[in-house]
Amino acid sequence: MKPASFDFLCPDTLEEALAALSQGGPEARVIAGGQSLVPMLNMRLARPALLVDIMRLEALRRIETSGDEISVGAGVRQAELETWTSLGRDLPLLAAVFPWIGHVQTRSRGTVCGSIAHADPSAELPLSLVTLGGWVSLRGHKQKRRVKADDFFIGMMATDLAEGEMIEAVHFPRARPGSGYAFREVGRRHGDFAIVACAAVADERGLRLGIAGVDDRPRVFSLPPLDDSQFDDAINDIAWSLNARDDFHASARYRRDLVRSLGRETLKEASRCRA
Amino acid sequence: MKSLGAAGGLIGRPVERIEDAGLLTGRGRYIDDLPVRRDTAHLAILRSPHAHAEVRAISTAAALALPGVFAVLTGEDVARLTRSMTVGVKANVECWPIARDRVRYVGEPVALVVAENRYVAEDALDLIEVEYETLTAVVDPEKALAADAPVLHPSLGTNLINERSFGYGDPEAAFATAAHRISIRIAYPRNSCTPIETYGVIAEYDPAEDAYDVTANFQGPFSIHAVIARALNVPGNRMRLRTPPDSGGSFGIKQGVFPYVILAAVAARVAGRPVKWIEDRLEHLTASVSATNRVTTLEAAVTPEGQITALNWDQLEDCGAHLRAPEPATLYRMHGNMTGAYAIRNVAIRNRVVLTNKTPTGLNRGFGGPQIYFALERLVHKIADELRLDPLDVIRRNLVPGDAFPYRTATGGLLDSGDYQTAIDRACAEGGLETLRQRRAIARAEGRLYGIGFAAVVEPSVSNMGYITTVLSPDERKKAGPKNGAQSVATIAIDPLGSVTVKVASVPQGQGHRTVLAQVVAERLGLSMEAVRVNTELDTSRDAWSIASGNYASRFAAAVAGAASLAAGRIRERLAAIAATQLNITSENVDFRDGKVLDRNNPDNALSFARVAASSHWAPGTLPDGTDQTIHETVFWTPEQLEAPTATDGINSSLCHGFIFDICGVEIDRTTGQVRIDHYVTMHDCGRILHPGMVEGQVRGGFAQAVGAALYEEYAYGGDGSFLTGTLADYLIPTVMETPEPLVLHHETPSPFTPLGAKGVGEGNCMSTPVCIANAVADALGIEDVQLPLSPSRITGWRHGEERPPSKPLDAKPAATGASGERMLTGSGSAEVSATREAVWAMLLDPNTLKAIIPGAHEVRKVSDTHFRAEVTLGIGPVKGRYRADIRLSDMVEPEAVTLAGGTEGALGSGRGTGRVTLTETTNGTRIDYRYEAAIGGKVASVGGRLLDGAARVVIGQFFQALARHAGGAPSLANGLIQRLMAPFRRRG
Amino acid sequence: MPRMNATRRHPVNFTLNGRAVSVEVENRMLLSDLLRHEIGLTGTHVGCEHGVCGACTVQIDGRPARACLTLAQQVRGSDVRTVEALSPNPAELSPLQAAFRRHHGLQCGFCTPGILMSLDTLLRETPDADRDEIREHLSGHLCRCTGYASIIEAALAAADELRKEEKTNA
């Protein structure tokens, strides 16, 4: 279990990185913390011709607040955001989510944007970004664009990232007073990929529920109030709409059941937090 | 605790371990840490992605041409230099460590590469091309017995490799007159205690002497040495096998390294240099060894009071693709204690061993115990349920009475000592059973799911090397000659400075043997522990050893420590005689204390131990007449109780029989189905405790593994034989968060058969805990059939009723999948296109169209009108691989319908599928309907099953969407998602 | 910095256990293999090479990290610390190591170096770490021998010891 060989570039500037990615085409990949990519390299599931290490690019290593948005650069490690002093106030959902992401030992190296780019359908960070209605900033050699998180994730480990592009930063809307947030997850063991993970936001616009682990990407839904007679039907229909699958860890039925029960609990908690 | 030696009191004390300082500072010497010769090369193994296939051709030229590669070997190359490994039953079947003409399990070695390092060796693996012709696989042991089942070994003609029936007492009469006949059926899954250090081998061949020298983290039994030497075609003295000083856990599993000893040895011979192989985790999970999975039907004849008068066992043992030594030992290790802790005089047993397309099995902690006790202790609970008795009363009613020891069981076992009643009484009282019952009552009153389970288990230790011959008929045994005993060996050496070295053939993997041996020998000789050094490395060409040597069957405390004690006793006796003449006293009055040899009645009359001890070196002429040297004393000890099987198949399969009684309270979350172990009590009688700290460690470690087996761990296979748990994210070993802390209790009844009164202790919870937890879960849920592992999804499945349907029909039907764990993917779709049916039909037969619509196709070659070959690159996210695809058209009804059957093969694994396409005329053109079935196997299935089912679906979808688009239509399911997903493939295509 | 070719070795400089190290490695060389097989520090063990078992855990810039999920090239300029640096001198154990020995916190010892590196970070950063925090850090490690209870006891005892030491020093 050793990686196949690859060229390695540790650029000093973002331009240099983007030029290399553009030149490398589909065979070039960004490596940041490496916590998702290196296992795939070791198993030779991934065999890029070029790895571009972006962790020396100081400009990408910042957490910035501007207006109602927290921007997390591509070089920010999960542990850095986890211990960011304003996390509890500005991103309470993430404060609840971090203990569920892998382990201390992987969060210390893994980056926030790396997890977004990897787009594992069970992963907590993509779920959080989608549920909060965040954005992804993409940089190519010649262009720069901003994509809504919900449009960024398009399938099983598949994203809107085009060849030659990289994530420059992700943007989380800052928590607003009078909003409630909650997160629940069921996995087999502590630190495992979620069988079902639910993130919820309750604010003046209503209830939003994000679900990971079931469909091939994190999905987010708006729901009627919990005491509404239509709530049960609504969450049941959501459970059915997720195209749940059987695997040996859990049946599709189990996943749907968890969406119904965990979803309700998460929404309830978010509503309680709001109140 | 009473001590043996006058000066000592060391035995029984929880002293700090000698081993730990080195291990804690990174100075352990595990196999991958050992120095090797400078020209040592590294071995990597190409493994089968298929569960069952003919090997048509292997092309190794490109691999061999890679710079840094020294040798590439196929099964035929290995076969030329070796013989088939010995099989433990009479059967017309061969057993090779590498596939020859056929692969029979995913992960079976197919080719070997020797290269300058592991990285290059793996590069070369990617360059080997193997042509397989896949065969139908069979993974279910019962299905493997069907008349139309695929046969793994044509020479055998069947998958049933062994069958034997046994009768003890008069089971027929007992069942005929029974008030109740109560039975249970169990399918016990596969799991493994998976050490954190994987296998490792360093092998060398000396052509001048035609001799092999191999170091491996093998754990024994060294009866396997004979299997290795025979396979390598050399006498035993030309097969030197050594073990490293430290081993990173084994739990039985490292017995299974031996086929790789053979492969590495041959590879070293062919490469002309030493070869080192360190197994990686994927290899380990896929292709090391595991416990057997077993289907058991157990019936009891029961009186109205719950007394069991007879048992009828029907065991179907699944040993995987080959019957590798020492299998079918898993099935026979428990033969003497098939009645567990109970006095049941009538027993019928039918044992069948079946081969399936799964990895061959081997030793695993608990060896045979989990399988039988799961059936027996579930049955006891079921008897209680059916007769409306308390399970604890049924257990108590049937126990072997306290005054009956040593107790000869119906099947020939000799239970050495015990007081089961008292141990149970104490466990209930000290373990808080009453509180637990109250907690259950309260929980149930509140509508929560709470259950209590019990398990009473006899834990055998120190295996009789003859038990496996119970698999032979009495006539066959007669011809083969009797096999019995369990030689353990210890050597005590004294050097010219009078310091003491102990050497044993015990091969520890973390059990602290060096510490316990130092305690035992120091106490016997009146020395401090620091004065005794212990060496547990084994070298078959220099050390004393025998077939029973090694670290298995919990034999250390009972047998090895005992042999060391006997050897120390002999040395002591001689030293006493030598000292007596110098001290002018009789040897009875000589005592050993504080590094001195002295007059018991006059402590001032003393000599230093070192001086007396060294006299055999410096002044052998001064030794008293009739007193032998004290330089080197080796003791072989085999207990007389371990006799060969009797003519009527009675067998005392183990020397010692400890006792365990467990109580477990569980609560099950109504929402998630997760099991929380609320309270766990485990009472142990392991005879005399030699080191409380280590006994505690053995119990807690075994318990944690058993919690894994009960709730999390399974080596899972798809119906097609694909292996699904190739990573530690899929094979779920409990972390600290999943491991509760049991209350551990002890009730000691020393064994009369072992030198120190000790019995084995390490395996018991692997036997008792899975069934105890299952009993508690069954009690909580009020159901009878519980299946391990008790996953939340499975538990919820037993509980939930009809599912609430969606409020309106779904747009897209949920993908229909098979039973949980089944790998077959199915799906369907349709598209409206503007082209005519004839035009669409033509496209399906045209290589250029196929090239355009097969995702990632580089090239499509037409082999015949209905057969195409393609090179494709498929990928999802960063996971990308190049595959060879083979597509055949059949059942063609022009221009209405056709079946496409395809297979892909590549370094990452394989896929196969069939799709039926129907073309219907519409007003605007044609409607294409398709449905498909597909499966993925090989590496991708083993390491990425969680993700890749979805990925395969995407790829299959792409094909049909592309077909539709190509035919000028808009696929009805087409959306931005598919378009974007396809973009990279189209560009490359 | 120029693109480093896959087929050649390239220099990497970092600090290892307090000393400057300069080696040449292939781009694909894992930190675990570099430490063990190029530099010869075999105390860091390899159990899974996919980041789950935790045996290879070392400290990179003061944080516990998987050496098997780190390319050697990624630690350029970093401060790497392994189990070999834990004890004050070869004949003495650190308080954490000594607590492991006293409480039988290890059996085969294969997972132990990784666990020590994680706990060492925790106890340095959070001297009054409680049982839950210790369990949280331990959850990134698999041990097959002990059932974990003795490891937790050892960690708690070491935390006690370190707090006492701190008081004495203060």
From TrEMBL, chain A:
This is Carbon monoxide dehydrogenase. PANTHER family: XANTHINE DEHYDROGENASE SUBUNIT C-RELATED. It holds the Pfam family FAD_binding_5. It comes from Nitratireductor aestuarii. PROSITE patterns: FAD_PCMH. Residues 1-177 form the FAD-binding PCMH-type domain. InterPro entries: CO_DH_flav_C, CO_DH_flav_C_dom_sf, Diverse_Substr_Oxidored, FAD-bd_PCMH, FAD-bd_PCMH-like_sf, FAD-bd_PCMH_sub1, FAD-bd_PCMH_sub2, Mopterin_DH_FAD-bd. Keywords: FAD, Flavoprotein, Oxidoreductase. One of its GO terms (molecular function) is FAD binding.
TrEMBL record, chain B:
CDD domains: CoxG. SMART domains: Ald_Xan_dh_C. Residues 25-136 form the Aldehyde oxidase/xanthine dehydrogenase a/b hammerhead domain. InterPro entries: Ald_Oxase/Xan_DH_a/b (IPR000674), Ald_Oxase/Xan_DH_a/b_sf (IPR036856), Ald_Oxase/xanthine_DH-like (IPR016208), AldOxase/xan_DH_MoCoBD1 (IPR008274), AldOxase/xan_DH_MoCoBD2 (IPR046867), AldOxase/xan_DH_Mopterin-bd_sf (IPR037165), CO_DH_gsu (IPR010419), START-like_dom_sf (IPR023393). The keyword Cell inner membrane does not apply. Residues 794-831 are annotated as: Disordered. It holds the Pfam family MoCoBD_1. One of its GO terms (molecular function) is iron ion binding. Keywords: Molybdenum, Oxidoreductase. This is Carbon monoxide dehydrogenase. It comes from Nitratireductor aestuarii.
From TrEMBL, chain C:
Residues 10-86 form the 2Fe-2S ferredoxin-type domain. InterPro entries: 2Fe-2S-bd, 2Fe-2S-bd_dom_sf, 2Fe-2S_ferredoxin-like_sf, 2Fe-2S_ferredoxin-type, 2Fe2S_fd_BS, Beta-grasp_dom_sf, Diverse_Oxidoreductases. Pfam families: Fer2, Fer2_2. Signal peptide: none annotated. Keywords: 2Fe-2S, Iron, Iron-sulfur, Metal-binding, Oxidoreductase. Transmembrane segments: none annotated. CDD domains: fer2. SUPFAM superfamilies: 2Fe-2S ferredoxin-like (SSF54292), CO dehydrogenase ISP C-domain like (SSF47741). It comes from the Bacteria. GO terms for molecular function: 2 iron, 2 sulfur cluster binding; metal ion binding; oxidoreductase activity. This is (2Fe-2S)-binding protein.
